[in-house]
Amino acid sequence: MKTLKKVAAVLAASMALNAVAFTGAFSASAEEDVTVIGTASLKGQMGTYGYWGEDNTGNSEDLTNKPVQITNEDKQYTASWEITGDGTGSIEFLMLEFDTNDDHFITKDTYPDLAITIDSVKVDGNEVDYKMSDNAVDYKYYANDTGTTRAYLLNTWNASGRKVTDISAETAVAQSVEVTFSVANVYAALPYGDLNEDGIVDTIDLLELALDVAQKGAGMGSSFDERKTKLADLDGNDTLDSMDIYYLLLHIAQSGAGITVDPFPVTVK
Ligand SMILES: [Ca+2]
Ligand SMILES: [Ca+2]
Fold it and tell me: Contact 14/248 with Cβ under 8 angstroms?
């Protein structure tokens, strides 16, 4: 009976908040099929050679960039560029940048567990001394209303507020640079709290959760499938109970009040 009383109290509170809606939920669902999420390209400046992305006016003509298409699989790729002309005795700035063509920017805001590892670097076909440093990747780089992930190999320009010198600035390049890297955990953030997955976390979701918890409290089983249970398990303890109702209610109240809410599942101290 105690649980039911709690549920009743929460329900009463939820009715008072009925006008409150939250539209910040990420509506994309986890993909099972292989889809292309964007591209990864080498960008930077080495001597007179420069490449800054497709159709950029700063691109030099004696350079051919070979970006790779990135999918949502865990996979290894190689991006490269080839140069013609005299070559260069130095590299000023070099990164691997992950771009998308749509609003699902390749960042940790879209893919919370995204992991990029640069495995090896070849110059003119020969592997060079390379060790990826801990701060080499900026998983949330935003500029001009666009978000990307940048894996820096050489960044002495303080981009992203960090310096990276994982390859030597004195690296001479006559023909090509190839970077082999691995991408893992490309799955979208689950729309936690949005139980009916309509893109909004509101009291309808709260009601569904409260009813399910009440049903279980009354000795009946849960009516939620595995995904719904996961979306509702806001403290991540694999059980749906009044704590999850509390967190969902708090979330709705906070977003209604314009307070930034912590992402789910919450960390229970
Ligand atoms: Ca909803
Ligand atoms: Ca729970």
Answer: no
* pTM across the whole model: 0.70
Tokens of 219: 């000795």
Q: How confident is the model at residue 18 (pLDDT cuts 50, 70, 90)?
A: very low
Q: Name the closest ligand to CA 243.
A: 2
Q: What are the Cα distances from residue 220, in Å, to 8, 107, 195, 266?
A: 17, 42, 20, 27
Q: Is the pLDDT of residue 16 over 80?
A: no
- Residue of 222, 228, 221, 223 whose CA lies nearest to 248: 228
What is d(CA 77, CA 199) in angstroms, rounded to the nearest whole number? 34
Confidence of residue 24 (pLDDT cuts 50, 70, 90): very low
- Identity of residue 229: T
Residue 122 CA to ligand 2 center (angstroms) comes to 48
Q: How far is the CA of 194 from the centre of ligand 1 (A)?
A: 4
Token reading at 256: 């209604």
Contact predicate 175/82, CB 8 Å: yes
Q: How far, in Å, from the CA of 217 to the mean position of ligand 1? A: 23
Distance 197 CA to ligand 1 centre (A): 5
**Ligand 2 center–CA 42 separation, angstroms:** 43
Q: How many angstroms is it from 31 CA to the middle of ligand 1?
A: 19
